[in-house]
Amino acid sequence: MSTAAFTTLVANVGRINATRTFNDDRQLASFSVAVSRRFRSKGEQVEETDWYEIKANAPHLITMVEQHIKKGDQLIITGAQSHRTYEKTDGSNGFSVEIFAHDVRFNISKKADSQAASEADQDEPAF
What residues contact residue 12 under an 8 Å CB cut-off, 6+ apart? Predict the structure, then answer.
């Protein structure tokens, strides 16, 4: 019996790929997300970003990706983590982390904060 490492990410959507349909009518939706962290190193503010490729094959998740998710959305993604190495065009080896999504949700608190800030801006008088 094999086990998978499950991961939960709070991440921002980057690129959304076209859904792929295979000969046996299976479909696969995929998109990239970024997870950023800020910290101080030697007195200076540093920001690092890791990119993940999210893959979804459940019909409800494919519909969500195709119809509701857009670049910049902040999502909470839970799924099985997989690592893949590949050869880059320059001949060097690349490494990617893929998450096979089991659950994808919008980060409602982030959307609520953005919406509240937007509404507050609209309530203030223009000078």
Answer: 33, 34, 35, 36, 72, 73, 74, 75
